[in-house]
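Standup notes, structure subgroup. Blocker cleared on the pyridoxal-5'-phosphate input:
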Amino acid sequence: MLQNFEPTLTYAQQKDREDELKEFRSRFYFPRHQDREVIYFCGNSLGLQPKPAAEQIQQELEDWRRMAIEGYWKAKTPWMTYPQSFRPALSRIVGGLEEEITVMNALTVNLQLLMLSFYRPQPGRYKILVEAGAFPSDQYSVETQVRLHGYQPKDAIVEVAPRPGERIIRDEDILNAIDHHKDSLSLVLIGGLNYYTGQVFDMAAITAAAHKAGAYAGFDLAHAVGNAPLRLHDWDVDFAVWCSYKYLNAGPGAAAGAFIHEKHARNQQLIRLGGWWGNDESSRFQMEKGFVPKPTAEGWSMSTAQVFNMAALKASLAVFEEAGIERLQAKSRQLTAWLRFLLQSLTNLSFEIITPEEPHRHAAQLSLFFENRGKAILDKMMEAGIVVDLRVPDVIRVAPAPLYNSFEDVFRFYQILQQMQ
Ligand SMILES: Cc1ncc(COP(=O)(O)O)c(C=O)c1O
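Run returned:
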């Protein structure tokens, strides 16, 4: 694939003309820098605002103004079942059945909530296996869950790290560690796409190994959702959580998502914390004692749907549906391969692309390691109108998003880097 690329602007523009998703760029607002749109490669942190988001939020405001309480039943998208309106699009994006998916709360909250169900340590089987260098919120979640159950993090948390001299964690090392701890493992929790390295883990194999060891498998998909190919149901994943503000473009702090495999959702014996929104709708308003969880992922929701925090997601997922997740992923593979091809030809800057190259081991993001120069290079990029971010130590994350980035964006980025020292 790489060898067919040509490092010219004409070639980039030709690729853009051939891109069947090119029109989608105009559906998003780009910030400006010195009278020009920025080169926005930060959709892995915060996706751009889809233009229809304002209209969707306006719709909810109008329904509230005109209908007040009746909006729960009569709004254009009735608020009573608002999270259900996301299921078709999200089920295609994460590869889950519709009833396995819900939208609620925020990412870390959902991670903690689902660990209450899926981390049920017993004497002798109490360990959680995680990737070393997991996102801090995940590390804090695991640490505090372990303490909640009276264990010590040092003993109960098993971290799998890259081998000495390597930057990427090998899937085989995770599988071997699961096997090694098979008698004491309760949960395997992995960031499906690591936020720092950009590597995608083999979630199917990790899930199978966890199950073989008698443990549950859960994934934080913050960086994978709307980005990497996911088949959560077929992989038999027990649970997964994600946020909606990165590749899903639903705005800062937008309501987050969760997947719970149907076999668990239907299992009324599985402990979950109750709230009236997780109660079966048929008895929700009977105000009786006795929590009857819905036999779906919604059985984990507790509170009234936060409609204003979900409206932009609705607008954004409509754009995703039109573009099609498979077409997006096909474009993404091309865009990121193009980015890698151009970066590899730079001779003026010294850095390492730490994200693995094989297509199934990465998605949109490439992580560039600039030893001891991360901040200095980032500042130069920002001055030149490039929006990317830095994660310590010294990694600049560059993530062209196939919905709104073009081959020309990538080429302009490369041209700016060509001028740097
Ligand atoms: C991998 C990962 N996990 C968890 C979080 C925390 O998400 P939130 O603040 O929405 O709970 C983030 C935020 O960027 C993240 O990237």
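Discussed briefly. The longest strand covers residues 185-191.
Next: hand off to the docking folks.
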